[in-house]
Amino acid sequence: TMRLKGKVAIVTAAGAGIGQATAREFLAQGAQVIATDINLDALSPLDTSGCKTYKLDVTDKDAVTAFAQDQGAPDILFNCAGFVHHGTILDCDDDAFGFSFDLNVRAMYRMMRAFLPAMLEANGGSIINMASAVSSILAAPNRFVYGATKAAVIGMTKSVAADYVTRGIRCNAICPGTIDSPSLQDRMRAQGDYETARAAFIARQPMGRIGTPEEIAKLAVYLASDETAFMTGQTITIDGGWTNT
Ligand code: NAD
Questions:
Q1: Is residue 199 part of a domain?
Q2: How far apart are CA 35 and CA 32, in angstroms?
Q3: What total of structural domains would you count in the chain?
Q4: Per-residue CA distances from 27 to 31, 126, 153, 188, 233 (Å)
Q5: Residues labelled as active-site residues
Q6: Which domain CATH number covers 139?
Q7: What's residue 245's pLDDT?
Q8: Is 205 within 8 Å of 242 (Cβ atoms)?
Q9: Closest Cα to atom 18 of ligand 1
Q10: Is ipTM strictly over 0.90?
């Protein structure tokens, strides 16, 4: 059975990793998927699979406004775009701080603000925001500004959920542990010794492995579907047991 049949879904950062896996899973569950990314080439595999694809830099205010006007109301809005800055507070200068908050927080605020009026007029929908276990939930070494941005995502998620709870809008956040994606591969390579870096990521997961983008995509389908009609304002942690230790 198609769990998202008849629904329209917009996904940001669908060019890679969790966003791409989720666009595919939404499609497989019968949704009409509008897959967006700053990198149009990265979306080409989704083109051939039946998604509509658009170049969208979520940090571009005018582009977000124009895109929302163009699209109208989706049933599902998955805000997935985000960047992991590596370092402590002393490694994070003003520009790095600004970039992370612009992409991880302000862009998500703009997407929700741009799409909410049409979604309210259409009597509701499910907004899913990508947070992280590294947020208000727990700290990880060298994730100073990243953790701060993802804590902000949780705050925005809860606030939107509270304000529109009687108007058909649900808003939940996904908080993954470590997930194998292109950017994780880059982060492991950037640490010099790939195997040691990978072993360190695995070691902090009690389950003894890194998660897959597909495992997060399945959770996104659940939150997008009417199966979770009674769930809003929640932060769903999916982390191989990391935060259970
Ligand atoms: P990724 O980082 O490998 O890929 C991200 C995609 O985002 C790329 O296709 C890139 O082109 C696109 N992108 C970058 N800047 C953009 C912009 N300004 N506008 C639109 N698209 C842009 O993907 P991932 O690792 O699966 O991460 C996706 C989300 O999941 C992020 O918010 C990340 O913080 C979060 N997350 C990831 C992990 C993990 O371990 N991978 C864990 C927790 C949370």
A1: no
A2: 10
A3: 1
A4: 5, 16, 26, 31, 25
A5: 146
A6: 3.40.50.720
A7: 86
A8: yes
A9: 57
A10: yes
> Position 178: which residue type?
T
pTM, two decimals, is 0.98
The pick from 10, 36, 181 for probing ligand 1's pocket by mutation, whose C-beta has the most ligand atoms within 8 angstroms, reads 181
Q: What are phi and psi of 80, to 5 degrees?
A: -110, -20
Distance CA 145, CA 151 (A): 10
**For ligand 1, mutation pick of 25, 84, 86 (most atoms within 8 Å of CB):** 84
At which residue do the structure tokens 């591969």 appear? 185
What are the C-alpha distances in Å from 8 to residues 4, 17, 170? Answer: 8, 21, 15
- The answer to whether 140 and 134 are in contact (CB under 8 A) is yes
Name residue, tokens 């896996």.
21
In a domain, 151, yes or no: yes
pLDDT tens, 91-131?
999 999 999 999 999 999 999 999 999 999 999 999 999 99
Residue 156 sits at φ, ψ, to 5 deg, of: -65, -40
Residue identifier of the C-alpha nearest atom 24 of ligand 1: 17
Residue nearest to atom 36 of ligand 1 (CA): 132
State which residues form the domain around 144.
Answer: 8-179+212-244
Ligand 1 centroid–CA 13 distance in Å is 6
